[in-house]
Write a structure and sequence with these properties.
The chain has 194 residues and is an alpha/beta fold. 36% of the residues lie in helices and 13% in strands. It is built from seven helices and five strands. The protein starts with 18 loop residues before the first helix and ends in a 17-residue tail after the last helix.
């Protein structure tokens, strides 16, 4: 990521600038504190946070970090597959992204993306990245990030569509195990003219 000018930082509550820290830290204290952080400064609320966790850990982590995620764009990449990989772990028409939105701070935005792409394809290919979110600015920010990786963002609609993106993730895994028979592919859109 460094060669593309993208910083990756592990989020912890004490490494994100908060209004309380701004109030309590003088410049010397802030500088001393930031010198201990690997990237050299505290995270800012406008940053994108990618939740790279197994699906059952995402909502609890968002709930735990709470206000540290205020104002951020939270990207859910998880796939809630059942134990036999032939269905989703949740039976109602919801998604992990929609559940995140319920526990995240009101000022945070949630985007579902990257869940239909295998790691090896993401590393070496240029797949389409399907995205679902209710916030147009959040989608635009994630789309810009996706484009900065040399990938192609595709907006599938509001956050309610995250449920269907999770289904597409399941289809991708099923194709890898059956019809395609390997992991070196991605779902995408090909436009045809008349």
């Amino acid at each position: 990521m460094r060669e593309r000018g993208i910083r990756v930082n592990v989020l912890t509550p004490d490494q994100v600038a908060t209004a309380k820290q701004e109030e309590l830290f003088d410049e010397q204290t802030r500088n001393a504190f930031e010198s201990l952080i690997p990237r050299g400064n505290m995270g800012r609320p406008e940053e994108i946070v990618i939740m790279a966790l197994l699906y059952d850990g995402v909502v609890p982590v968002v709930a735990e970090y709470g206000e540290a995620l205020a104002g951020k764009v939270i990207v859910d990449i998880s796939n809630p597959f059942n134990a036999t990989f032939d269905g989703l772990a949740h039976s109602v028409e919801t998604s992990i992204a929609q559940e995140i939105a319920k526990v995240a701070p009101a000022s945070a935005s949630v985007v579902k993306a990257f869940n239909t792409i295998f790691r090896n394809v993401l590393e070496s290919g240029r797949p389409d990245v399907f995205m679902a979110a209710d916030s147009a600015p959040a989608k635009a920010g994630v789309a810009a990030f996706v484009e900065s990786l040399g990938l192609h963002p595709l907006d599938v609609g509001g956050l309610k569509m995250a449920h269907w993106l999770e289904g597409m993730g399941l289809v991708t895994v099923s194709l890898a195990g059956n019809g395609v028979g390997h992991w070196n592919f991605a779902l995408g859109v090909h436009e045809f003219t008349h």
